[in-house]
Design a protein that fits this description.
three-stranded antiparallel β-sheet; globular; binds zinc ion
């Protein structure tokens, strides 16, 4: 059974994938939420339930090949391909360009689903789509665990996200939590920044 919206939200919270607080992001901005998709995907039963949602969305798309951008997309791409009975390969950065390597190939017109963990601007997915098309395969859809664009990205193919999430981030000098004197935390580190 695919996870419902409520079960998915609960899984994000229970696994610490979605944190609430006052966070310093890698961009230097501050946010009241922090999302680390890998935290939920470390539990295979959640990964299975999330990918069942992708399978429901693309059941009738006759997917033959799943391609994911490395590293984030690999876990969900592999499981989605398993459920669809499709083949799975990945794209990875080589000289800053998303490339399909390792002798992986695709047949002309092969029906391909691109699967990612988190879409923010969609950059890695766009590059993966280009790499798939360069092999002559056809992109029939895109699936992502989380869409942080708030539904604004257009991949030129049907796009299904298990969850849509708006990102609120502020420059430190405009941060309301700093204003309130709430200590800021850098996610993923045990130390608080000076
Ligand atoms: Zn702040």
């Amino acid at each position: 059974m695919a996870l419902t919206d409520e079960q998915l939200a609960a899984a994000f919270k229970q696994t610490g994938a979605l944190l609430q607080g006052h966070f310093l992001l890698t961009s230097g901005k501050h946010s009241d939420r922090y999302f680390q998709c890998a935290k939920v995907l470390q539990h295979p039963e959640h990964t299975t339930g999330i990918c069942e949602r992708f399978v429901e969305a693309f059941r009738d798309a006759n997917v033959e090949l799943v391609v994911s951008p490395a590293i984030g997309g690999i876990v969900v791409g592999q499981e989605t391909a398993r459920q669809l009975g499709a083949r799975f390969i990945w794209a990875e950065r080589e000289n800053d360009k998303m490339t399909i390597r390792r002798g992986f190939d695709a047949a002309p017109g092969e029906r391909t689903l691109v699967v990612e963990d988190v879409v923010t601007t969609g950059g890695s997915v766009f590059e993966t789509i280009d790499a798939v098309k360069a092999l002559g395969a056809e992109v029939v859809g895109v699936a992502s665990v989380v869409d942080r664009s708030g539904g604004t990205v257009d991949f030129g193919a049907p796009f299904s996200a298990a969850m849509t999430m708006q990102v609120t981030a502020w420059a430190p000098e405009e941060c309301p939590l700093c204003e309130e004197g709430v200590p800021v935390v850098k996610p993923g580190s045990r130390k608080k920044p000076a």
